[in-house]
Amino acid sequence: MDVLVCVKRVPAVGAEILLTADGTAIDTRHLGFTIGPHEECAVEEAVRIAERTGGSAGVLTVGPPETEEQLRYALSMGADHAVRVDTPETDPDPEATAAAVTGALGELPPYDLVLFGEASADAGHAQVGFRVACALRRPVVGGVKGIDLDGDRVLLRRESPEGVEVHEAPLPAVAAVLEGLNLPRYPTIKGRLRAKKAPIRVLDGPGATGGLRTLRLRHRPEARARTVVLGHGAAAAPAVVDVLAELGIVP
Amino acid sequence: MVLVVVERDGDGTLTEDSAEVLAAARDLAESLGVPVGAVAVGEPGELPDDLVKRGVGRLHLLAHELLTDGSPACLGEALAGLVADLRPAAVLAPSTDRSTEAMAWAAAELGMPLATACTEIRPGDDGPWEVTRERAGGVLLEDAALTAPIRLCTLRPGSPSPSETAAADEMTVHVVVPELRASVPRARLVERRERAAGMTLTTAPVVVAGGRGVGSSEGYAVLEELAGLVGGAVGCSRVATNNGWRPHADQVGLTGTRISPDLYVACGISGATQHWVGCMNARSILAVNTDPEAPMVTRATWAVIGDVHEVLPAVVDEIRRRSGR
Ligand SMILES: Cc1cc2nc3c(=O)[nH]c(=O)nc-3n(C[C@H](O)[C@H](O)[C@H](O)COP(=O)(O)OP(=O)(O)OC[C@H]3O[C@@H](n4cnc5c(N)ncnc54)[C@H](O)[C@@H]3O)c2cc1C
Ligand SMILES: Nc1ncnc2c1ncn2[C@@H]1O[C@H](COP(=O)(O)O)[C@@H](O)[C@H]1O
């Protein structure tokens, strides 16, 4: 079975986030980049499916040349081939991203299953996978935490407010997955070396833009009182239990 | 019209999130001088009466077996058809998984943009509307321009304060049987299992969570013990999940679970933004950390500076001593 995973390059932010002077983006001068945890699980799942079925696992990203770093990371995890759809923007509007992915899928050999993250790690629009499925008229299930193959159909498990649901879809299908689907592997040295030399196919982007434009980014206002330090080490235990008693948590 | 996608609980009552979206829709509709309509799936039940009290005079009920047995994409397809007919100024939905997925499909079908996870909507006179949305679960806020003939938005809970509204004069219910094209291959629900009863991370009044500072999977024994004593659940950071110390179901944060317990005890967790968005709605936070400068410590209500494995056993002993257990 041939599986394709769509991944996005995002800044790996820590506890403090600096914004650029014009306030429209994260200041990434001192940051590394990564793919989101949902997408990492999607890559892991694609590699496992390819191994199990003797198929292939591809990865695709939409963005400028530097996003190839993330494709190589996916290759080092065991993906077989990589595609970059060339666009000037690193954080395109979700309509534009979906158009680029849809266009690429029209040019590439067919895939049985296309995997997305439920939401990208930086923008979190939670829509690109559904837009692509709609454009291609493919069945789609989101929030997926379990994938089982069964001949020409796939069983997709997700959680809902009521409990656990299993959806069945005919192939080819689309799924948006969540972290927890599996425990992604760490790349091996051999995988890294292979990924370094692997060719990356580059396709032209459609140059479309969508109707959602970022004006500025802001930190959320925080209203927290100053921290009360209850003490150091084991000696703080009575003060901690006083607090728990005050909260009514212990008698 | 401002059209609101409303969801109902298992027993048929309007969800809290949907009630909040209705309140926001009323404010928006008032400023635009248009009425509010609602759209829901299935039988009317108590919904029309409830909506009238909330100032809604028109309800569209989508009736199709695929809307209960299908995936949210089916709802998206049905919604797109209705929206294309009604041409409302805006469509608002709660930012639950189900509604977000349906709205994403509908937006694609309509060829329009969609702003998800909005906390505020500011209509423009002629030009684009401005929205504020949460990026990455609230790691940052984003002001964005939304340019479209019909503005599609999902709303995060906790935005508006529901004000008193005049009831609508009357209620018109339209039953709409959407045409779901037979040619489209779809996913179908084949099995539904109810969640086992019991305390979960989201319902626990106290969550005792551990991160890298706990050191190993065995290290969580003392967190389990404390959680047991205070009637709480155990949580963890992504480092703990990635190391295989805890199952992913325990993970608090952006790609884990968002929780709002009365007390969050964060042990050996630094407080990275992606973790913080999962616990920032806790009523109070107690941080246990060797580093007094850790962001979790400086943002907590209370802190103990020290090693998890010295502090927690002492706390457990002290609780047992006081309660004579
Ligand atoms: C897109 C994205 C999504 C993410 N989603 C999540 C998410 O959902 N949830 C999540 O948790 N993370 C998430 N992360 C990861 C996040 O950025 C951090 O890497 C992670 O939260 C750090 O976990 P930690 O605090 O346990 O470890 P660290 O950051 O390493 O912190 C360990 C802390 O323990 C303290 N410590 C060490 N030893 C002891 C001791 N003996 N006693 C007491 N304290 C000690 C240290 O002082 C330090 O403060 C995400 C990251 C990305 C990029
Ligand atoms: N620039 C991109 N390139 C490739 N895939 C992307 C890109 N942006 C988003 N995606 C995919 O779409 C999913 C949902 O993204 P979003 O709609 O932005 O939350 C992500 O988890 C990725 O799988």
TrEMBL record, chain A:
Pfam families: ETF. Its cofactor is FAD. It comes from the Bacteria. Residues 23-204 form the Electron transfer flavoprotein alpha/beta-subunit N-terminal domain. The electron transfer flavoprotein serves as a specific electron acceptor for other dehydrogenases. It transfers the electrons to the main respiratory chain via ETF-ubiquinone oxidoreductase (ETF dehydrogenase). Heterodimer of an alpha and a beta subunit. This is Electron transfer flavoprotein small subunit. It comes from Actinomycetospora chibensis. The lineage of its organism: Bacteria, Bacillati, Actinomycetota, Actinomycetes, Pseudonocardiales.
Automatic annotation (TrEMBL), chain B:
Pfam families: ETF, ETF_alpha. Its cofactor is FAD. Residues 2-184 form the Electron transfer flavoprotein alpha/beta-subunit N-terminal domain. Signal peptide: none annotated. Heterodimer of an alpha and a beta subunit. The electron transfer flavoprotein serves as a specific electron acceptor for other dehydrogenases. It transfers the electrons to the main respiratory chain via ETF-ubiquinone oxidoreductase (ETF dehydrogenase). Belongs to the ETF alpha-subunit/FixB family. This is Electron transfer flavoprotein subunit alpha/FixB family protein.
